[in-house]
Amino acid sequence: MSATIQPPASQRDADAALSKGDAKAASELVSWKAGIGLGLLAVLGTVLFGLLANDKLAGFRIAEARDPNASTVAAWVTLAVALAASAYLAYLWAARRRQGGPVDRWIPAAALAAVVVLGLAALGVARLEKVAAPSMAVGWICSAVLLALAGYAIFLTTQRRPAPRWVGGVFAVVFLVGFLVWIVAGGRDSEPSISLGGLLAGSVTLAVPLVFGSLSGVLCERVGVVNIAIEGQLLLGAFSAAVVATVTGNVYFGLISAGVAGALVSLVLAVVSIKYLVNQIIVGVVLNVLISGLTSFLFSTLLTADPEHLNKPGRLDPVDIPFLADIPVIGPILFHQSLVGYLMYAAVIVVYVGLFHTKWGLRVRAVGEHPQAADTVGINVNRTRFRNVLMGGAIAGIGGSFFTLVSVDAFSKDMSGGRGYIALAALIFGRWNPIGAFLAALLFGFADNLQSIITIIGSPVPSQFMAMLPYALTVIAVAGLVGRSRPPAASGIPYVKG
Amino acid sequence: MSEKTTPEPAAPAGKHAAKEPAADSPMQASPVEDVASGVVIDTAGGNIPPSAVPSSSQSGSIRPGPGDSLLRQIFTGNAMVSLLSVVLAIVLGGILMAVTNPKVAATAGYFFAQPGDLLTEVFRPYAALVQGSIFNWAGTDTAAQLYPITETLTVSTPLICAGLGVALAFRAGLFNIGAQGQIIFGALFGAYIGFTWHLPVGLHLLVVIVAGLIGGAVWGGVVGLLKARTGAHEVIVTIMLNYIANFLLLFLLTTPAFQRKGSTNPISPFLDQNALFPELLGPQFRLHAGFLVAVLATAFVWWLLNRSTVGFEFRAVGANASAAQTAGINVARSTILVMAIAGALAGLAGITQVSGTEKYLSGGVAASIGFDAITVALLGRSTPWGTFFAGLLFGAFRAGGVAMQAQTQTPIDIVLVIQSLIVLFIAAPPLVRAIFGLNPRKKKPTQGGTAGSKASGVKSGAAA
Fold first, then answer.
1. Do A424 and B239 touch (CB under 8 A)?
2. Within the 4-23 window of chain A, which residues sit less than 8 Å (CB to CB) from chain B?
3. Does B15 contact A at CB distance below 8 Å?
4. How many angstroms separate the CA of residue A204 from the nearest CA in chain B?
5. Is the pTM of this model over 0.90?
6. Whether B17 contacts chain A with CB within 8 A
7. B276: closest CA among B358, B214, B218, B386?
């Protein structure tokens, strides 16, 4: 994602159609959904953060740096770079607005990211160790902002104007801040606190298999094949990574075999659904059951009988990227990952650039949106689908190796634990876009990690409700209550050359 | 970026349907092409995903070729494919068990001296499976000998009910992956009425059943409502609602309203005696009247689909929603209604669990019934009685699997493998026909030859 991104006309319809479609649909018929939805959430926020708040201080510990000297340098450099980047982006933004041209979607997003980095670097430079927020005051401020935003959205709706996109964004951020402060202040201690660095770092780590899984889903769905089998691909990837790494004594072979195993699941999916034209959802569901049964059976018979020689893979230890890992707060979160974690960054970028900025990607999306048209211009629809499904499986398989090579160093029954389905949710929440899926997976990883942290500190919200969050968000997303999510047009429909 | 020919997503897709040569030349079509033409009809010319079970196999058998004898038609028909799928899956499961069993390797060492040992070892798990699911020939008295078959019926009961729910939705063109959540909701509603209210005999059970039906119908109806009003894909919604229902159940079981007094475990109190299904064969068997309810439910679904207007509308919507809309059928209403009924049937499965088999509510009340129900409905080709017998078969696998695990230490997970293989093969009849060399109207004799050798390869692999 650099400044070279100038969405060509061909890309607009697939990528920017969402926003354009939103605007168009909204101008024709201003929906009350946004206003009512925000209003209800604002009332909920007021009740929770304001009325139910206690007078404790919510503490957020900022992770301390490991090497004080290096980190100061890194922090100052990051601060400077972030400052420059934010200034440049703000200038670009303002310039585009002044010319009256449309502002590309990446500019506000990149500006926001730069500002966040700026803020975090500033925290590092200031050597702040802990931020404490009075929950009552913060709660009421957040409630007031939420109510004001909801009121603004409702006011605009009465004026038959759609609420601008930033309203939703700001609302989400303020809601999140209010929620975090409220939930931490609800802890058992007299002065409850959580580690912000730990919370974020854990979120990224937990999101790794989700990101790989949802990228697999993106590759398959963009080409018109629904991939419900992500769960199976993750699971078989985890299994074969554990076994191969143990047998060969080399974790890298394990990593490769995980990719092969995922592709194998995909091969069955592709053969049965593309060649034999069986409904893709059925094949996916059945494959998940098959892989679950197969790995559990082999685990119970072979792996438990001889764990020394079959189920003792080594670990892929976290590797620090020099300099970058020394940046306070950000470094430990983003640049203290295992090889699988870094592969995740690479995969997101490769899939994004590949899908939206190459000839290959254009063909893939054409096949997914309108296979007949793609066929007419000479693209082999079913071969393209076959390749993509295999690629997707390999990616999900590598994601599965996270379970046995990074997270826990042994395979156990059904250890993917439904994350394949959360990956599916992330894919939809991210609107079939690799970057969107990545961010959605991060959000779900955050919810997952927050759930385990607040279980430790004790919280007013039962942990089951936190666990429910990703699923509830997805239902809301697919129901079109927040924006519009539209799958590729030919997704799920086998192509028969006629 | 040389190409600028991205297709317009908004291009009128309907035109292609007309252009598709659906079944122009059925006489010369090869097996794969035959399937292809079927799929073209099934997807309305590439506009909708194909139905769970191809329409041709729902209505009967595939069209016989011109020169096919009656015998050949029987051998290539759907019943045969189902049978062969089961056989193939069992053979593959046997191979899997054989290669992972160290005793088999040991007996294989002296195979030529005493071939009996190896074969006994290979077939032992399946013998235990039959012994645990149909007839226990080692039992001391009649009751002990017949216990397995009653156990099979007990385990089948929720599978049949939930399977009917999935099958009904399939017939209306909807993928109800959400039986799991609907079972939980049915069990939740029913169990709550069951242990908090105290009503007279008969009435209490009736109220519990109704509550369970409502619970399931609510959770299923939500899916239909979202699908009809917002177009949200039911597969995604049902998967997500499964998790939501599961976490809700886990949460409720920690609250005073649901948790058993004096217990630290997340389980509910026992249901009232009046709220339980009566035992059919006395207290030494677990078989309860819920099985009769499952039979009634099957008959009801058969009547609904084949004899009622509503069912006709469901099937019309399932075959082609656009055509149904044009014909004046209220598709949105049908979608909501069919999901509510499907949910109610799954809710009934939840009731047979809490009111019959388990007698209390726990976090594992739905076990994996909701997912097994999908395979049951697929194996039953989405017909009510087909689903019924598929439920019995998978119930037998489940019941026998437990006995097998106890007797031969073969993990019960093998049952999952066999079940999913069966469904995979059933879903792709050409694959099975190719493996057994039964493809109808094949033009090239060589094709049959290679397929036949493949099949014999599989068989000899099983024997080895």
1. yes
2. 8-11, 13-14, 17
3. no
4. 22
5. no
6. no
7. B358
Give the span between the Cα atoms of B364 and A274, in whole angstroms: 36
R_g (Cα) of chain A, nearest Å: 24
Binary contact (B100, A298; C-beta < 8 A): yes
**Number of residues that this document lists for chain A:** 498
- In terms of Cβ atoms closer than 10 Å to its own Cβ (0-12, 13-18, 19+), residue B413 is buried
Amino acid (1-letter code) at residue A70:
A
Tell me the shortest Cα–Cα distance from B380 to chain A, in angstroms: 14
Given an 8 Å threshold on Cβ–Cβ distance, is A276 in contact with B430?
Answer: yes
Count of A-B CB contacts under 8 Å: 215
> Which tokens sit at B192?
């709550």
Give, in order, the Cα–Cα distances in Å from A388 to each of A361, A393, A438, B28: 10, 8, 19, 33
Q: Which of residues 144-203 of A touch B (CB under 8 A)?
A: none
Instruction: Bin B53: left if φ > 0, else alpha if -120 < ψ < 50, else beta.
Output: beta
Per-residue pLDDT tens listing for chain B (464 residues)? 344 443 433 434 343 433 334 444 444 444 455 555 666 556 656 666 666 655 544 444 444 455 556 666 666 667 788 888 889 999 999 889 888 887 777 777 777 777 777 778 788 888 888 888 888 888 888 888 889 999 999 999 999 999 999 999 999 988 898 999 999 999 999 999 999 999 998 899 999 999 999 999 999 999 999 988 888 888 889 989 999 999 999 999 989 888 888 888 889 999 999 999 999 888 888 899 999 999 999 999 999 999 999 999 999 998 888 899 999 999 999 999 999 999 999 999 999 999 998 899 998 888 889 989 998 998 888 899 999 999 999 999 999 999 898 888 888 899 989 999 998 888 888 888 888 877 655 444 444 444 434 444 433 433 33
Q: Which residues does B449 contact at the CB level (< 8 Å), separation at least 6?
A: B437
